[in-house]
Amino acid sequence: MFRxxxxxxxxxxxxxxxxxxxxxxxxxxxxxxxxxxFSYTPSWSxxxxxxxxVWFGFLSMALGVRDDLHLSxxxxxxxxxxxxxxxxxxxxxxxTFGFGAFMLIQGLTMATVGLRNxxxxxxxxSAWLYSAVPLSGCAVMIYSVEKFFLxxxxxxxxxxxxxxx
Length: 165
What we know:
Strand content: under 5%
Largest sheet: none
Mean pLDDT: 86
Distance between the termini: 23 Å
Number of strands: 0
Number of helices: 6
Order of helices and strands: HHHHHH
Structural class: mainly alpha
Radius of gyration: 20 Å
Number of domains: 1
Low-confidence stretches: 157-165
């Protein structure tokens, strides 16, 4: 069941990220064309591109946790004895889960505060911008739990090069 939830979350995050990236590129291209050829800049274009960029960035970060693409200090992997690798990996995903929980809690606070502000060009509440943080935090938590239990079940590990398998 958890695998089904993780697959659904992954598909949603990936599809939304792709949509936002394409939308951002289209909006920026439209802005450039209208600015240089018609001396007109739509009032909503900069805010729309910003909104897409922020959402895309946070969703990509969550996918980085899923795919182990995040930055890590590999020196610890090289100097840690083999029998300590599993506890260190478990601790890493506990910390990542904690960071996701922090994003969820603080992101909800930011979105609540953002309800009082509006984007002037779009007329949307600023909460739309800040909502990327708690949504990404939830995804980070889901991916961390998955990695944690995969390690506990012995279904993942590191190869000789120190890369996740």
